[in-house]
């Protein structure tokens, strides 16, 4: 079965960086984009960007450009999210999610499997 | 960028009710719209993709429809398990995703 398993919770100081991992299993890792979505405490969902594990191509939400880097290691079917210069308002649960493809292998604009989430707390 | 406004922010309903949640786009959009359910402390769950397609395993009481700027999620005969937050999500060009602000369906 498809699974996305994320790394554990992190506590960081303002200005530091953090790296969150997302290990995929149960499907061909290079066949689906990986998206990252975050959710601040008590708030809604915010899309951060995607990475194509097959090519390494990325696309970031404007809010995060220059401060967020998405990478993958296809040898271990793992995606990574790195956030630089953390601020207190980066405190959130960070999710990785798989882009859904239809029977024609086309992206249908939605996310069908999600990781369990990683809480990143930024506090001095 | 296209903005997605979801309403109502909170909806009070009873078991057995028919519930409708609306997502309004700032401009006419195509059918690249999805709906998710999220319970407290849990991961979002895909319910509907491409506006009206039911995700595998999702009960048939959930349905999606709409056109232009107005898109709706309907829950027929609300069940106890359906009290949750619901989010719409638009896919724009180049796979850029935008979520609505969410609707909390609570018990009346």
Description:
The complex is a heterodimer of chains A (124) and B (108). Chain A contains no helices and 11 strands. The N and C termini of chain A lie far apart (40 Å). By secondary structure, chain A is mainly beta. The mean pLDDT of chain A is 96. Chain A is 0% helix and 52% strand. Chain B has 108 residues and is mainly β. In chain B, the strands form 2 sheets. In chain B, strands 2, 4, 5, 6, 9, 10 and 11 form a 7-stranded mixed sheet that branches. A 4-stranded antiparallel sheet of chain B has the order 1-3-8-7, with no helix packed on it. Classes of the chains: A mainly beta (124), B mainly beta (108). At the A-B interface, strand 5, strand 9 and strand 10 of A face strand 4, strand 5, strand 9 and strand 10 of B.
Task: Kindly list the characteristics that best describe this protein.
A: about 120 residues, mainly beta, 7-stranded mixed sheet, about 50% strand, B: about 110 residues, 11 strands, about 0% helix
Give the structure's gist in a few sentences.
Chain A is mainly beta and 124 residues long.
Report the C-alpha radius of gyration of chain B, rounded.
13 Å
Distance between the termini of chain B: 36 Å
Q: How would you describe the oligomerization state of the chains in this entry?
A: heterodimer
* Share of helix of chain B, binned: under 10%
Query: Mind summarizing the main beta sheet of chain B?
Result: 7 strands, mixed
Query: What are the secondary-structure elements of chain B, in order, as H or E?
Result: EEEEEEEEEEE
Number of strands of chain B: 11
Q: Briefly note the structural class of the backbone of chain A.
A: mainly beta
> Beta-strand level of the residues of chain A, as a percent range?
over 45%
- Secondary structure category of chain B: mainly beta
Question: Helix count of chain A, per DSSP?
Answer: 0
| Poorly predicted runs of chain B | none
Largest contact between protein chains?
Answer: A-B, 25 and 27 residues
Total number of helices of chain B: 0
Helix content of chain A: under 10%
Q: How many β strands of chain A by DSSP? A: 11
């Amino acid at each position: 079965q498809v699974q996305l398993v994320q790394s554990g919770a992190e506590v960081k100081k303002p200005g530091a960086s953090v790296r969150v991992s997302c290990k995929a299993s149960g499907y061909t890792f290079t066949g689906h984009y990986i998206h990252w979505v975050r959710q601040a405490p008590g708030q809604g969902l915010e899309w951060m960007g995607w990475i194509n594990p097959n090519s390494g191509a990325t696309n970031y939400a404007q809010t995060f450009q220059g401060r967020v880097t998405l990478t993958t290691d296809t040898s271990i079917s793992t995606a990574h999210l790195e956030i630089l210069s953390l601020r207190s308002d980066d405190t959130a649960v960070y999710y990785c999610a798989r882009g859904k493809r239809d029977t024609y292998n086309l992206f249908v604009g939605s996310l069908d499997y999600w990781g369990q989430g990683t809480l990143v707390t930024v506090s001095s | 960028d296209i903005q997605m406004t979801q309403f109502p922010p909170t909806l009070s309903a009873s078991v057995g009710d028919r519930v409708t949640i609306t997502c309004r786009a700032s401009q006419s959009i195509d059918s690249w719209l999805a709906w998710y359910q999220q319970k407290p402390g849990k991961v979002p769950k895909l319910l509907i993709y491409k506006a009206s397609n039911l995700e595998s395993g999702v009960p048939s009481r959930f349905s999606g429809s709409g056109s232009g700027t107005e898109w709706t999620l309907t829950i027929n005969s609300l069940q106890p398990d359906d009290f949750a937050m619901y989010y719409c999500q638009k896919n724009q060009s180049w796979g850029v995703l935008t979520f609505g602000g969410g609707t909390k369906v609570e018990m009346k």
